[in-house]
Amino acid sequence: MNNTILLGHGSGGIMTGNLIRNLFLKYFNNPLLEKLSDSSVFSVDGATLAFTTDSYVVDPIFFPGGDIGKLAVCGTVNDLAMSGAKPLYLSSGLILEEGFPLADLETIVSSMSEEAQKAGIQIITGDTKVVKKGQCDKVFINTAGIGILEDRYRHISGGLHIRPGDQLIVNGFLGDHEIAIMAARENLKFEEPVASDVASLHPIVHALLEGGVDIHFMRDLTRGGIASVLDEMAENRDFGVSVSEASLPIRDQTQGLCELYGFDPLYLANEGKMVLVVARESAGPAIEIMHGFETGTHAALIGVITSSKPGMVLLQSRTGGTRIVTRLAGEQLPRIC
Amino acid sequence: MNNTILLGHGSGGIMTGNLIRNLFLKYFNNPLLEKLSDSSVFSVDGATLAFTTDSYVVDPIFFPGGDIGKLAVCGTVNDLAMSGAKPLYLSSGLILEEGFPLADLETIVSSMSEEAQKAGIQIITGDTKVVKKGQCDKVFINTAGIGILEDRYRHISGGLHIRPGDQLIVNGFLGDHEIAIMAARENLKFEEPVASDVASLHPIVHALLEGGVDIHFMRDLTRGGIASVLDEMAENRDFGVSVSEASLPIRDQTQGLCELYGFDPLYLANEGKMVLVVARESAGPAIEIMHGFETGTHAALIGVITSSKPGMVLLQSRTGGTRIVTRLAGEQLPRIC
């Protein structure tokens, strides 16, 4: 068991973290990778750039709210946006299964194009491989992205300005992507169906930055959910995180499904959600700006950075108790993104 | 048949070209992509950069001369080098099959690291996905690369300076990669085994540029072989290409296997070979420099740019005849890279 790859290695949780530390950092040892940010930030010839990559293997490839093409553009755009960068260019690497319908490919490529236009970026280089039937599942997409970063935002990706008193904000309901994928896969019916939240967060981030919001950290919530992001953020730092359960925006359908399946909404995957850490005085203006966007209608304050319990994430439960939030241990739902 | 993806769509030949034109260019319509260079070149904040991507699905993943990890680094480094850029940074996107041996993954990651060091680049961002057993074949790797380009080399990737009288050079034996993969797959035995030529071409290109060789065009020879590269290079241009069959460096084993299987060496895949178009007076110095490298020991003049037969590639055969060289029509060997 321990000497082969398990689904949990792709979960974005503890096993992924161990694989990164024990294997990738061991061999690809360099200061930029070691930061383990969503984007790697470097300077070249006076320009400061952000660079990131993600592969997308979501199953099913078409789901309520989007498809693998939309996901592949939004996901990488969001990784750039989270570093404070303006996304500029994307690459597109497709692996196709022999026999894949060209009409489906056209739908996916059209989605990619549409999302790229919305995000104001261009797909400028690509590659297509075809493998024999049965050697991959329909289509896998890799996108890598390049963005440009203003020096005044360079502190964001490392969370260097995070300090006690900072406010935590999420831009809406947690878990929509995972609920939508699970419902599509298991053929579950809701009275009010949940669509994936897959969306480009660049417009809302751009508005926040332009609006003068003092952002100390941003991270999109994908595999591993908000728990994993907060846990990574606080790890080995001199501050703690306190989150109020009652303030977390969670849909009734999500809560219900979690109770049914024994899932924890803190670990549900999202594809258009982010957690924002802002200076205390920026919290009000930030939420006001976010409420002006479809991707931020349900933005809410969910917690605060504390000087107590450094390195830890604590959830203040509805019933008055406190529990420590750790990273996802195994895997919740494979091929979620 | 016509409305699904076929193996030939991934061949690097005519079907790949049609897919790019009819689908990708239709939707991802932008001037940078339209150039269809191996790397896309753009300027940002005064820096001129090259950006490229490739996915690697080679089967078997370990083969004489290398493995999928070495291939994934060299291939993308070479795409950058061919534009005249100095490769700087790579991303690494892995898709792993559940149950893949961790020891094999370590070997692959170690190869990637070793090749990155040889090429003087850093792998600064990555992503790992795991899919269920049977949903991909062992491991697929995507790498995207960023390089920096001096303005004086900016003409190279578009072949803007190519003119009649320019000399064509290849850096060694054609087809080693395809022969090695085929032999590994079919369990063929040679008296003198052929290893894949997979190698980073950045060092030799760097020496050529630093040595003042007036390079008008470079392209690495991968899927589709030298035929496809020359054909693409000449397409819609006001020059022709004349290649002498007798001057092409081809191993006896390769020639023999081609005769046995009915393959044409012009279409064999390589992973450490390039064609170089240089000003006439640079041909001698170029070959001299190349002979100083392991990757250039068998460098040879193979042809010339002509003012006659514009847009066409002609092969002067050993027997005195002439034939038109077209692009690969179907697919020769799937999952070659």
Descriptive report:
- 2 copies of one chain form a homodimer.
- Chain A folds into 2 domains: 37-153, PurM-like, N-terminal domain (60s Ribosomal Protein L30, Chain: A); 167-325, Alpha-Beta Complex (Phosphoribosyl-aminoimidazole Synthetase, Chain A, domain 2), CATH 3.90.650.
- The mean pLDDT of chain A is 95.
- Chain A is α+β, with helices and mostly antiparallel strands and 337 residues long.
- Chain A has a 7-stranded mixed beta sheet with strand order 9-11-8-12-10-13-14, sandwiched between helices. A 5-stranded mixed beta sheet of chain A has the order 1-2-7-5-6, covered by helices on one side.
- Chain A has helices at 14-27, 31-34, 68-82, 102-119, 176-186, 202-210, 225-234, 252-261, 283-291, and strands at residues 40-44, 47-56, 62-63, 66-67, 86-97, 122-131, 139-148, 167-170, 215-220, 240-244, 274-278, 300-306, 313-316, 322-324.
- Chains A and B meet through helix 1, strand 1, strand 2, strand 5 and helix 4 of A and helix 1, strand 1, strand 2, strand 5 and helix 4 of B.
Question: Could you outline the blueprint of secondary structure elements for this entry?
Answer:
2 copies of one chain form a homodimer.
Chain A (H helix, E strand, L loop, with lengths): L13 H14 L3 H4 L5 E5 L2 E10 L5 E2 L2 E2 H15 L3 E12 L4 H18 L2 E10 L7 E10 L18 E4 L5 H11 L15 H9 L4 E6 L4 H10 L5 E5 L7 H10 L12 E5 L4 H9 L8 E7 L6 E4 L5 E3 L13
Parallel strand pairs in A: 5-6, 10-13
Antiparallel strand pairs in A: 1-2, 2-7, 3-4, 5-7, 8-11, 8-12, 9-11, 10-12, 13-14
